[in-house]
Amino acid sequence: MDLTLAAVIIMGAWVVAIVAAGLVMSLRPGGVAVRLAPAGTTTSVPSGRRDEILLGGDAEVLGNVRGRVRAVQLRPESRQLQDVELANGLENRPVPASAIVSADGQVLRLAERWPEPSLDEPGDDAATLRQDATVVSAEGKRLGKLRLVCFDASSSMVTALVVDGRSTPSRRLLPFERVTAAGPHRIATDLKASEWSTLQPFATDWEIRQGLIQQLATDPALETVRRSLNIDVEDQRVRLRGYVRDLAQAERVAELARSVPGVLQVQRELVSDDELTRAVSDAIRRDPATSAAEVQVIARGGTVDITGEAPDRSAARRIESVARQVSGVATVHNLVAIRQQAS
């Protein structure tokens, strides 16, 4: 009986401690929902690339993990990042937004050193964005859980939140101008629940690039293309550069890129062998110093082979120079012979 009573007392004390800790967390700076200034009243205008902070993701300094991102705090009047809260074991440490080097939706990279925040600096009015905070609609309905915070790298202005909901695709980009109040556990919006499906689907640039690489690997006919292909992804927009056999192959690569979840736009800058062959041949014919040459041009993956005859050595050398100036040419093999003069 004594043991049972002792167990009850211990459990009761444990519950009280948990409740007290919750009250402390709710009353600490950033622990309550903070109303944000209307989007139209902010002075900064996003103009740079979009960086993405993964809540719960690693934070690194020179490749060394310094902790996990526990929360992000922002200034409600300007909607700009104020600091990032890192969790390292039992210790939580604020890092000023000025220390952020980049954030790609996977890893938050920080500068080697940063100024420590002033203890006298007021932070009671900061709005806290924490992993798994519930995002609700204008009617108070649950839309999903907070996963990432997107911000403009040049101005540090928060531009969007990535919310994980129930529909497919589950992750969607919520424009931050639709957020009216933010707290560590609940984020209020003016978005109607019926508008959820109209939000832009989200994927990190890294995820899109990896997804396209995997898609290309499934098509054996594109093995040669993969070796020369450069894939650039920024803000879910894909830029493709490299060489293909023909326009049909170029369209196949673009089609695979468009099929990757989260891709918003595909910019195709692929040079086909046929196009490059014609461009080099036309350039040689148009140049007065080489127009009298009789040559054959074959282009493969940026390498151009030129055979045939030129009237003299000067024209033969000029042929190579003209070919190298054509956009898309990487290497020129000049196999042009000097035409024999009739005796």
Quick structural gist:
The chain is an alpha+beta fold and 343 residues long.
Task: Walk me through this protein's architecture.
A hairpin with a 3-residue loop joins strand 7 (100-103) and strand 8 (107-110). Strands 1, 2, 10, 11, 12, 13, 14, 15 and 16 form a nine-stranded mixed β-sheet that branches. Strands 3, 4, 5, 6, 7, 8 and 9 form a seven-stranded mixed β-sheet that branches. Strands 17-18-19 form a three-stranded mixed β-sheet. The model is unreliable at 18-30 (pLDDT under 50). It has helices at residues 2-27, 205-217, 223-228, 247-259, 273-286, 313-324, and strands spanning 34-35, 50-54, 58-61, 64-75, 80-88, 91-96, 100-103, 107-110, 127-130, 134-136, 142-152, 158-164, 171-175, 179-182, 186-189, 200-201, 230-234, 237-244, 265-272, 294-300, 303-310, 331-338. The protein is built from six helices and 22 strands. It has 343 residues and is of the alpha+beta class. The relative contact order is 0.09.
Which helices and strands occur, and which strands form pairs?
Layout: H1 2-27, E1 34-35, E2 50-54, E3 58-61, E4 64-75, E5 80-88, E6 91-96, E7 100-103, E8 107-110, E9 127-130, E10 134-136, E11 142-152, E12 158-164, E13 171-175, E14 179-182, E15 186-189, E16 200-201, H2 205-217, H3 223-228, E17 230-234, E18 237-244, H4 247-259, E19 265-272, H5 273-286, E20 294-300, E21 303-310, H6 313-324, E22 331-338
Parallel strand pairs: 3-8, 10-15, 18-19, 21-22
Antiparallel strand pairs: 1-14, 2-11, 3-4, 4-5, 4-9, 5-6, 7-8, 10-11, 11-12, 12-13, 13-16, 14-15, 17-18, 20-21
